Amino acid sequence: MEPGLEAVAALMAVAFVAGTIDALAGGGGLLTIPALMAAGLPPVAAIATNKLQSSFGTASAVVAFARQRRIDFRRFAVPALAAFLGSVLGACVLQAVDPSFLAGFVPLLLIAMALYFLLAPKASEEDRHGRFGRGAMAAVAFAIGAYDGFFGPGTGSFLTTALVALFGLGLVSATAHTKLLNLASNLAALAVLVAGGHVLWLAGLAMAVASILGGQLGAHLAMRWGGRAVRPLLVTMSLALTAKLLAEPGNPLLRAWARWF
Fold first, then answer.
1. Mean pLDDT, range 50-68, rounded to an integer
2. For residue 199, what are the CA distances in angstroms to 1, 95, 111, 155, 259?
3. Residue 218's CB: how many other CB atoms inside 10 A?
4. Rounded to an integer, what distance in angstroms lies between the CA atom of residue 150 and that of residue 147?
5. Are 61 and 175 in contact (CB under 8 A)?
6. Residue 185 to residues 22, 152, 257, Cα–Cα distance (Å)
7. What is the DSSP string of 118-141?
8. How far is CA 81 from the centre of its chain?
9. To which protein family does this belong (predicted)?
10. Cα–Cα distance, 33 to 49 (Å, whole number)
11. pLDDT of 26-37, one tens digit each?
12. What is the pLDDT of residues 94-136, one digit of tens each?
């Protein structure tokens, strides 16, 4: 069931902010998934609809980076394919999991990702010598792609951190190539979830328009200033939305807490 027009307008505002933050530092799904669930969508539909909107925003950021010649498509073709295949696997697993389990599990994942964003070390701005080769990069892309297909928030940050720490890219270059890998994993998960009938098109496309605008803004801000000062805002907003989910009377974790205590 599609949310009402007021809810769609609110979701578009969240998607714009998330698209900007996602292009800067990754993690936009930490805002959009709890917002979609707060609007009444079940977990799989929320994740599926988020894939629709985030695919447009990520594609927009890829175009912006490509225009500035920041993406080496030849070097990252195989890792992008690996991220695609991993995401297909993750999305298939997502649809096989009990929805009631997901309703309780997703808020816990959101809290874990928020803490990761708060505590993760800052990446270097300069390119360095990479520790591993292309085979390792493909393996890492497959693993993170599988996570993206199953859930998603934090994927951009995981990829950026890996590209900086393991493969020697500077922060801006890693951010640009993260968008390419994330686009591959988003499209793979979206295809699987569309086939499963889980995407809400009106909400997803409306959010996509806002995410595109946010992604363009965020990509240009990233190239100019990097992702400084984004994490505190992202973590605060994400935890506030997650707290709202946990406070819902039907949340399985709340019911379990009531039974135990």
1. 86
2. 10, 12, 24, 20, 34
3. 29
4. 5
5. no
6. 15, 9, 35
7. HHSPPPPSS----SS-HHHHHHHH
8. 18
9. Belongs to the 4-toluene sulfonate uptake permease (TSUP) (TC 2.A.102) family.
10. 9
11. 667 778 988 998
12. 999 887 778 777 777 878 877 776 776 655 555 555 567 789 9
Separation of alpha carbons 101 and 22, rounded Å: 27
Tell me the pLDDT tens digit for each residue of 153-212: 778 878 888 888 788 888 788 888 998 999 999 999 999 999 999 999 999 999 999 988
Residue 79 Cα to chain centre, angstroms? 18
Q: What is the pLDDT of residue 223?
A: 66
Say whether pLDDT at 233 is over 90: no
Q: How far apart are CA 97 and CA 103, in angstroms?
A: 11
The structure tokens 């499963």 sit at 196
Residue 242's nearest CA partner among 51, 47, 35, 8 is: 35
Cα dihedral sign for 85, 75, 231, 7?
negative
The structure tokens listed for 133 are 């080769």
- And the tokens for 90? 């993750």
Which amino acid, one-letter code, is at 105? F
